[in-house]
Amino acid sequence: MTVTLDDIRAAAERIRGHVIETPLVRDEALSARLGQPVWLKCEYRQTTGAFKLRGATNAILSLPPEALARGVVTASTGNHGRALAHAARALDVPATVCLSRLVPGNKVQAIRDLGAQVRIAGASQDEAMAEVARAVAQEGMTEIPPFDHKAVVAGQGTIGLEIGTPETVLVPLSGGGLAAGVAVAIKALAPGTRVIGLTMENGAAMAASLAAGHPVEVAETASLADSLGGGIGLQNRVTFALCRALLDDVILLTEAEIAQGIRHLGRAGHVVEGAASVGTAALLAGKVVPQGPTVCILSGANIDPALHARIMAEAA
After folding, report:
1. Residue 315: its pLDDT value, please?
2. Candidate list 41, 52, 150, 187, residue with the active-site label
3. 3-state secondary structure the chain
4. Is pLDDT of 102 > 50?
5. Is 52 a catalytic residue?
6. What average pLDDT does range 14-41 have in this prediction?
7. 17, 69, 107, 215: most buried by Cβ count inside 10 Å?
8. Using one digit for the tens of pLDDT, what is the confidence trace for 259-308?
């Protein structure tokens, strides 16, 4: 299974009016520091506070009426569940979101507030996905996965259509839905543009899988970039192959580097979660050296306010 530029363009038409086209904002401090223009794709300003609304909306709008009537279910590290709950409520579709105990409480409550049923299942994304499989088999629900799904990837790829053709695009990398979708769009429009995936050092399943040459399981650990946790599925059908074919590099970041990214963006008025800061974190740490215009995708804003305050209070 794969995703094409035509799929992404069709998704853009389908979700028009259901999501917003988020702005590109120049990071003046980083641009001056690096001697190259750095732009921030402010996807954290999306209606539900994260890019996930694009993929969830495209997927749910692609379903036939009989599937919608049975209700939809997903596993999530938080943002996809919130997006699916929002899209389902708009269409009056029952939604169930399965989460592990590692998902922050603010994200769990946000999903409940949107009217979805929440099920806490175990201490890993894999255990939450097992509960989804049970709900599909025994309750007849329709699964909308958080990333490994053509319609979800195509929806996320609409961000690539809005970015243009810079020299480098820095994309948060988890299960690969965002990275794969953006890479498909960017590489089709500008094959010479570098697309680099960024993730945390510990518990990065896609990075480990790409290094191994096939999907592997990894132990999940707590991280400031909690949205980047979780497995990619040993039977991954879409995102692993696309990331392997299209990403120019994958870079790992320490927790201290992620915190520095959060602080830098916070000082510029962008209150974002750890996963959203990884592009700027890589630039600040010198792990990416831009050779031309560079875009960092700020993927989500759903950080606990108390955690953000503590990070901002720390010495730079």
Report:
1. 61
2. 52
3. CCCCHHHHHHHHHHHECCECCCCEEECHHHHHHHCCCEEEECHHHCCCCECHHHHHHHHHHCCCHHHHHHCEEEEECCHHHHHHHHHHHHCCCCEEEEECCCCCHHHHHHHHHCCCEEEECCCCHHHHHHHHHHHHHHHCCEECCCCCCHHHHHHHHHHHHHHCCCCEEEEECCCCHHHHHHHHHHHHHCCCCEEEEEEECCCCHHHHHHHHCCCCCCCCCCCCCHHHCCCCCCCCCCHHHHHHHHCCEEEEECHHHHHHHHHHHHHCCCCCCHHHHHHHHHHHCCCCCCCCCEEEECCECCCCHHHHHHHHHCCC
4. yes
5. yes
6. 97
7. 107
8. 999 999 999 999 999 999 999 999 999 999 999 999 999 999 989 899 99
Catalytic residue among 62, 100, 277, 299: 299
Sequence letter at residue 284: L
Quote the tokens at residue 135: 């709900």
Radius of gyration over alpha carbons of the chain, in Å? Answer: 18
Active site residue 227: no
